[in-house]
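This protein record is not my work; I was only asked to verify it. Where you disagree with what is written, explain briefly why. This is what I was given:
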Amino acid sequence: MEPIHVNSEIKPLKKVMLHRPGRELLNLTPDTLDQLLFDDIPFLQVAVKEHDAFAKILRENGVEVVYLEDLMAQTLDQSPQIRDQFLQQYIMEAGIHTPKWKKLVLDHLNKIKDNKELVLKTMEGIQLKEIEHDRTNSLVDMVSEENKMIVDPMPNLYFTRDPFATIGNGVSLNRMYSVTRNRETIYGEYIFNYHPEYKGKVEKYFDRYDAFHIEGGDILNLSESVLAVGISQRTSPDAIEGLAKNIFQNPNTKIKTVLAFNIPNTRAFMHLDTVFTQIDYDKFTVHPGILGTLQVFEITQGDTQYSVKIKEIKASLDHILEKYLGIPKVTLIQCAGGDRIASEREQWNDGSNTLCIAPGVIVVYERNDVTNELLRKHGLKVLEMPSSELSRGRGGPRCMSMPLVRE
């Protein structure tokens, strides 16, 4: 079995990567919420229980659950050289550039001998007071608070959908929209370069060093031959065009068409998967707010190498999906049934962000009770998970999961 195999949003999920929320959430403060892309501070103790309930639902339904922090620790276990290279790069990407502080932070991290503990620490961030150094002859120390973060936390990591995306037998290792999140993709870089399960075995269709930003929440595998990507607040049209060119040039891919969906550029419509996800062969959840405004473009191979053809598709969303999926009828199930107040409320709490683990079997947040009841009426098997704290990060079950293998 290939280490990465995902050419559908709905085929039975066999293996998924999660990140269990950690102490990085404790380093969120009201003053840093905007910078770190949160609207509120989740209560870690409860968030972990909710996340464990999510993992339990997946395991009970035959899904192997692996964790980002474990894969990264196993990667660092390969050699002291890989560990040292990672730490040097991590410190540089954290914005620490003076030789004195590079050495101080490196020495601090090297005191952590267990690689999993080290990985969790790099996710958590580092406070000034943790670093042992002479504070009596430093102007920075004299004007800085002890609790100052000298390395920011990565609180968005439990949304494992975004730093990379699985496409067929390969990945898009993403350049994220914000500086805060772009640091997260270092873990994917090391896992795919050095972890024995993935090293040399995974096609790379996009790289974190590319010029334009793209995030995994905007990437949907509609079929073996059709990929959907959202033009959104966090994914640029330039990145989609580059991704399409890279895919079409790769002899091992079966993707022939990339559909680019231009969605509103707002926090509520952050990614394509917050407004539109596939939940069965012929059913999709959708936020009613995009139905009248959506632009869709077809991207295919051009007449010359590394060129593409692009045309706008003038049709309704259901007719576009019917055409490209090759099915006679698609049902769009509107978040909260289209009721304006309820749909806006449940959309904010990711009512459209469902994780399909088999055709017609979906994991959802229990708090979106109007939408969930509607999904049941349409014949879906709805598996509800608790979500009072996890939802504060503005992402649902799909955002919190990165499928590695589907049937």
The mean pLDDT is 88. The two ends are 10 Å apart (CA to CA).
